[in-house]
Design goal:
Strand content: 35-45%
Structural class: alpha/beta
CATH class of the largest domain: Alpha Beta
Number of strands: 27
Shape: globular
Distance between the termini: 60 Å
Number of helices: 7
Radius of gyration: 22 Å
Largest sheet: 7 strands, mixed
CATH superfamily of the largest domain: FAD/NAD(P)-binding domain
Number of domains: 3
CATH architecture of the largest domain: 3-Layer(bba) Sandwich
Helix content: 10-25%
Amino acid sequence: MQEFDIVIIGGGPAGMAAAIAAREEGIEDILILEREEQLGGMLNQCIHNGFGLHTFKEELTGPEYAQKFADKINKLNIQYKLNTMVLELSRDKIVTAVNSEDGILEIKAKSIILSMGCRERPRGAITIPGSRCAGIYTAGTAQRFVNIEGYMPGKEVVILGSGDIGLVMARRMTLEGAKVKAVVEIRPYSSGLKRNIIQCLDDFNIPLKLNYAVIDIKGKERVEGVTIAQVDENKKPIKDREEFIECDTLLLAVGLLPENEVCRKAKVKLSDITGGPEVDESMQTNRDGIFACGNVLHIHELVDNVTVEGYNAGKNAASYVKGVRFDGEKVELLATEGVRYTVPNYINPKNIDQSIDVRFRVENVYRNSYISIYFDDIKECSIRKRILTPGEVETLKISKAMLEKHRNCKQITFKVEEE
């Protein structure tokens, strides 16, 4: 059995940032396990720009952003294994993995960092009626076909879901010569960034049909068209508001899920809301010495925020290896009344030097509202927001002074309060 100080599962932006941070903290014995043939994760197929504005103060494509980190990984001589699938993680921090070169591997770690990223919801998760013909892809699969494999999925396209990957693929398919006939969204708002709505849909005159759902798929061998219908407040189709759109391709951009199957045997506690691990201020899970960061934790809209979480996880995992323990009494963070979830889920006030960033998403679109923070039943602050949308992760700071002011606090609650 091989032994390492830190084993990082996943070599995307979060995993690479974690490895770099741990090495810069003096940890030499680090191993990254990556199932793809190169480091970088999903960034390698995201050839559009817009990455790195916060981290590098310049606008990069996904592969360029990933390469900056991969170059640093190589410069620091951090070990990594590619084409390596992690099969299992035990509570004793033993990783079982497999690849064609080594066969079955068993690796013992002092600390584990989970950075496996996320996966797309498939058609089966949303149960669209209709035939099971060719021409139905997840948006990420289509992105890989076009940007890496060099294949066009189709010529006349309907996209279901208006998250960022759906919006980006609407533009990409258009630039490659396809006709994107509509982006269909069951909710009354897009779940993507505002800039992507403008740059990917508005600039190309691609219609965004809000409050609509795909209710049928026509076609025997290949998709011939889809029937969409406007939905009511309960998301039920309205019969006289149906429309048939001829197309040969349906792309599904219906959400992402943290890729956390290996967490289960290790008894890592998962959030019912995000599907990712619950963590404290150090990015440590409920399992001592197991940390999590990036899209395996919760779905981000900016890779720069993924990178920040990776740095934090790597730095704290290094401290753990050196003997620091992030234990002690913790304060629970609660998301209620319009706030969907928070990350972290717990804070140990003793471990906060000056302040901690709390990231969260709201459940709906709110205008001219306030995000209020309560320490138990005492409102500590209320911050006015011109607009809050589920498509964008918000960040608020909890300061050391706040925590010291409410020393005996048991819960910190985040709420949306309207005027």
